[in-house]
Write a structure and sequence with these properties.
It is a single chain. The protein is of the alpha/beta class. The chain has ten helices and 13 strands. The chain has helices at 20-23, 31-38, 51-66, 90-98, 114-125, 151-154, 226-248, 265-275, 286-289, 296-306, and strands at residues 4-12, 17-19, 42-44, 75-79, 104-108, 133-141, 159-168, 176-184, 192-193, 223-224, 257-260, 315-322, 326-333. The strands form four sheets. Strands 1-7-6-4-5 form a five-stranded mixed β-sheet, sandwiched between helices. A four-stranded mixed β-sheet has the order 8-13-12-11, sandwiched between helices. Strands 2-3 form a two-stranded antiparallel ribbon. Helix 3 (51-66) packs across helix 4 (90-98) and helix 7 crosses helix 8.
């Protein structure tokens, strides 16, 4: 059975740093209020860079790290909730930018769980003997969706991208995805919503417009039921990680790192208590980057690899959770 090996990673973070004190200049908040409730001190925001550009920068760095030409790619998977265009897909734009003409292209929207969903897809694609290299890119411009007058949401989110080249490993290599668990609770989709385009054309009767499924969404800004999302996130983070550890025949203590979606430090701390695991295993970088949705896990992964903290043969768990509501976890050997 073919196995997935991560052969190169790369990230892109905008240069524009927005601190909590800067946020306090535009909404009624403070550094103490934000930090104590979220663990976030600052975030990177796009200074105008589109999502496709951030994706391309991260992808080029990952390809360089892998020592691979873009022409060798068979598949490009992009996870994003903030594309620059409804069509073409961000993956197709990225293909053109990289010159990866041989690859087929696909965008994935599983919100903050997108990276875990796409990692599972990449692993499955690599079972096909005709596929040797999959480029997985998570790119998010969440500042597009944020109402900067809403202090409960605008302080949470950041922009950024990260990419991983996933290749079929040789039979004598230990790299592998050991277990995955994907899920969704669509019945609770109302808890985290950003509206797309409304129906409008000259042949319709305005009185026949259907009511909004999730209430009166007057714009595309993110609306969130914070307490419900918090409870969901703590539950699925812990339960899905314990599930994949059981599938892999591992204890959580056997892992080098656990990389959760970087949404809120309180979520990570509460999940660690629920799992009765050493909090030191849990990677936490939201202080510097905020919540970058599907890009948050691979940004942390790239940092661990580039710093040398993550070594070949180490076992790592990742877990995402977010709008949909979606969740997913995976354990792999780096």
């Amino acid at each position: 059975m073919a196995q997935l090996k991560m052969t190169g990673t790369g990230s892109y973070l905008p240069d524009l740093i927005v601190t909590n004190d800067m946020m306090a200049q535009i909404v009624d908040t403070s550094d103490k209020w934000i930090t104590s409730r979220t663990g976030i001190s600052e975030r990177r925001l796009s200074a105008g860079e589109p999502t496709w550009y951030m994706a391309a920068q991260a992808a080029q760095r990952a390809l360089s790290a892998a020592g691979l030409e873009a022409a060798a790619l068979d598949v490009i998977l992009v996870t994003t909730v903030t594309p620059d265009y409804f069509l073409p897909s961000t993956a197709c734009i990225l293909q053109a930018e990289l010159g990866a003409d041989h690859a087929f292209c696909l965008d994935v929207n599983a919100a903050c769980t997108g990276f875990v969903y796409a990692l599972d897809l990449a692993n499955r694609y690599l079972q096909d003997p005709k596929i040797a290299h999959v480029l997985l890119v998570s790119a998010e411009n969440l500042s597009k969706l944020v109402d900067f007058k809403d202090r409960s949401t605008c302080v949470l989110f950041g922009d950024g991208a990260s990419a991983i080249v996933c290749s079929r490993s040789a039979e004598d290599e230990s790299s592998a995805v050991l277990a995955t668990r994907l899920g969704a609770e669509g019945k609770n989709g109302r808890c985290l919503v950003s509206r797309a385009l409304q129906i409008s054309h000259p042949f319709m009767n305005p009185d026949s417009v259907w009511p909004d499924r999730f209430g009166e969404q007057k714009n595309h800004f993110v609306q969130m039921e914070g307490q419900e999302v918090f409870k969901f996130a703590v539950r699925v983070l812990a339960d899905s990680l314990l599930d994949v550890a059981g599938q892999a025949g591992l204890a959580l203590e056997d892992l080098a790192f656990i990389i959760p979606h970087q949404a809120n430090s309180r979520i990570v701390e509460a999940a660690a208590r629920r799992m009765k695991v050493d909090p030191g295993l849990m990677v936490s970088r939201m202080s510097d980057f905020g919540n970058t949705s599907s890009a948050s896990i691979p940004i942390c992964l790239d940092e661990l690899i580039c710093s040398g903290r993550l070594k070949r043969g180490d076992k790592v768990a990742v877990c995402g959770f977010g709008a949909g509501l979606t969740y997913g976890a995976a354990i792999f050997v780096y």
